[in-house]
Amino acid sequence: MSASAPSTTAGTVFGGRYRLRTRVGSDTAAGAEFWRAEDTILRRDVALSILRRLEREDGAVGGDDPTGSTRAGEMVVRALRSGSFEHDGCARLFDVLAPGHAGVPTDVLGVAVTEWVPGRSLAEVIADGMIKPLAAARAVAPLAAAAEEAHRHGLVLGCDHPQRVRITADGRARLSFALPRPDITPADDVRGLGAVLYTLLTTRWPLSGADAARAGLATADRAPGGAPPPPSAQRPGVPMELDTLTVGTLGPSDAAGHVHTAAAVRTLLNEVVEEDDRSALFPPVPDGVPSGPGDVWQDRGRAPARADPRRRRNLLLGLSALALGVVSVLGFVGVQVGAIFSEGDGPRIVVNGPVGPSGAPPEEGSAAEGGVVAVAGVEVYDEVGDRDNAGRVSRVIDGDRESGWRTVTYRQQFPALKPGIGIMVSFASAVQLSSLTVDSPSAGSVVEIRASPKADAAFEETTPIKDSPLGAGGATQISLAGSQPLTHVLVWVSELGGGNGEFSTEIDEIEFRRAGA
Question: In this structure, what CATH number is given to the domain that contains residue 23?
Answer without folding.
Answer: 3.30.200.20
